Amino acid sequence: MVTVLVDFEKRVKEIELFFKHIENLEVDGALLYFPNKTTRKIQPHNNELIKVFKANVFLLLYNLAESSIKQSLTEVYDTISSDSLTYQDVIDEIKKIWISQKHDNFKNKGTENIFISINQLASEVIDIKFDSTKSISGNIDARKIKEFSSKHGFSDRTHRNANNGNKLHQVKTQRNNLAHGNISFAECGRNYGIGQLRDTKKEVILYLRNILRNIKKYLDDREYAI
């Protein structure tokens, strides 16, 4: 998880840098300086470019969420698999994942084959794979992360200032609207003041950072094992 956390903080710095640029553009009387030493005054409330920049904050935040959760869950599956634990050595949540991946066709096996599989379960070595295409793409918000938490057995508790990740749903919605062409970048950006975006950014980053630390603890303490 160290690599995942380092990558997360790197992406956070990129977002903070981008956001700082938008804040500077929004300053009343802000000027752009060009190489030929000319300047041009920015009209904050009439500048379509600033609206486009604001909309891009949703893309950056969603990218942060999807990439960090995808990397984290991949790390969970790889760590558990590399631990060479048997079915009887892991918590119920991981047992269910193993059954769904290894024995999902019980109903088509017949009584005899089901009997053999059940008797073999206890000694089977857990080797699970994470397929992000089935559960993540364009679908990450706090509700989905809570599902992952329940499914794998790691904590979803976060700092009260993270507001349970509620603003991540808004980020996901706006990101998908932009990605699918349901709204233009300027239309999206004009609906949000810099203060609203700042609050959204802070809450989403805090929420995700807390979740990643929960997953790190889950792996470091081997909470997936009995």
Please give a structural write-up:
- Strand 1 and strand 2 (39-41) form a beta hairpin.
- The two termini are 21 Å apart.
- With 226 residues, the chain is mainly α.
- Helix 1 runs antiparallel to helix 9 (194-220), helix 2 crosses helix 7 and helix 2 runs parallel beside helix 9 (194-220).
- It has a two-stranded antiparallel sheet.
- It has nine helices and two strands.
- The protein has helices spanning 2-26, 48-82, 92-102, 111-121, 132-135, 142-152, 167-179, 185-189, 194-220, and strands at residues 31-33, 39-41.
- Helix content is 63%, strand content 3%.
Radius of gyration, CA atoms, in whole angstroms? 23 Å
Shape: elongated
Please outline the major beta sheet.
2 strands, antiparallel
Secondary-structure class? mainly alpha
The sequence of SSEs as H and E is HEEHHHHHHHH
For the record, give the distance between the C-alpha atoms at the N and C termini, rounded to a whole number.
21 Å
Contiguous runs where pLDDT drops below 50 for at least 5 residues: none
Q: Can you count the helices?
A: 9
Mean pLDDT: 92
Give the beta-strand count: 2
In which order are the strands of the major sheet placed?
Answer: 1-2
Report the helical percentage.
55-70%
